[in-house]
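Example 4.3 (complexes with small molecules)
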Amino acid sequence: MGDWWKKSVVYQIYPRSFKDSNGDGFGDLQGIIQKLDYLKELGIDVIWLSPVYDSPQQDNGYDIRDYRKMYGKFGTMEDMDELIQKAHDRGLKIVMDLVANHTSDEHRWFVESRKSGDNPYSGYYIWKDPKDGGGEPNNWGSSFCGSAWTYDGTRGQYYLHFYDKKQPDLNWENETVRREVYDLMKFWMDKGVDGWRMDVIASISKYTDFPDYPEEPGRRYYTGFMHSNGPRLHEYLQEMNREALAGYDCMTVGEAPGSTSENARLFVDPGRKELNMIFTFEHMNIDRIPGHVNRKWALKPFDVRDLKRVMSDWQEKLEGHGWNALYLENHDQPRVISRWGNDTCYRKECAKAYATILHGMKGTPYVYQGEEIGMVNASYQLEEYEDVEVKNALLELVEREKTISREEFQKAVWNKSRDNARTPMQWTDGENAGFTSGTPWFKVNPRYKEINVEEALKDQDSVFYYYQKLIRLRHQEEILTEGSYRLLLPEDESLFVYEREYRGRRWLVAANLTDRPVPAGRLDGILYPGCRAVIQNRPQILEDGMMQPYEAFIVES
Ligand code: NOJ
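Answer. The structure with 1-deoxynojirimycin bound is encoded below.
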């Protein structure tokens, strides 16, 4: 089996927001087909589709009702077959989202399971009796706030859900459940799907003694280490390889909350036959206050040193032991230039600077739709948000527990909400940014007049063409895929600088991640004399003896 994914760049599509072909305001499969040539022009190799299966859409498709059917608003199975075919015709691969930690409560398995304790599906989910004296079986919390347990009157028991109560967790201890998952994977791979992004895969194995988290004053429910990396996780992943993946030439990337650069090798060491790569959250968590009761909404100011430390740690620890998945954005994260950069006067420079840092590293880069044109966060009023995570946090933290004021929460939502990345893709400066001819399911970001694909394709200096060049470099230059990594200036508060080296060649990757000029002297002894620029985001490198705001470049010695 090839490791084509090492030289690939993956583009993530969030289908409901990508392109609507039939005017119902909702992105669809035919819309994606219409844009395949655009993706080809960008130069990516693989498309990862967020879930397109039948779903009540409580969590925008991460709540699956039927794994072998398309959600009606996305299209039909014929549309899906056509998409796979047309992508393959263009040399593009398709990776699907495997959401198998949980299903929707409307999935047939759960509908049956909740009926009684003695039917063929009773053991498909995790059911527990109330604690002695009543109440939830333990103090585990849902990632979307509140308890991770919901009582079901018919069955007279609680079921576990690490996410919304409409997303019951599957019981992976049950061999029949595992077999069901492997079967559905084969169903899709037989259709030609080229791989899997595995949703919260690190959570599939549970601590079956269901221990309470140690209590802290002022807190009722807890999420954390017991929600992931359970005792049988790696046994399941190895079994999945043997039972489902073997014989198919596909790539796998697991979403691994709770993973560290230390335990990452357990997932990605090729000798262990588990996953090709994982998504860590460590760099995404640098701007939250650790252990805070308000979780991701407790903001900590961005410090570029934290970003360098975490990303470099993963580069170093996986060297020779496994492959990295490189990302700064996805459908769960805000736009990086709004989050940690500048999305106004240096918007383009900043987008290119982050792209340079990410695409210069070793691993497989992921581009999230709109990142390639420098899309920015949205600032809507709280009531306008669609995401279940925001809605639940508003009820739980602001209204019930009162651990965060409405004003503070509003600010945190502008900065961190997942909906920032879920606004419709901006194709043109026309009505609804060219996303739909109808009424979009979610408000278009008002900055679409200035930031859109049509505009980017006309402008030779656009973020789009910069990404195109970085992607081309990934295909052409072995130093990017194979070269070693060394962080330089770890304590510098503004610059992110590192070196790649391969077979006597040396590349220096550098970016000023602030909106202040920095004296070029800081690169003394580091910058190669008489070097050749590989890529740069300003007409002149180090103009006026300064590394200009958000200036970025790669040079060869
Ligand atoms: C991670 C997904 O990326 C996110 O969107 C979803 O809400 C949770 N897993 C639950 O499936």
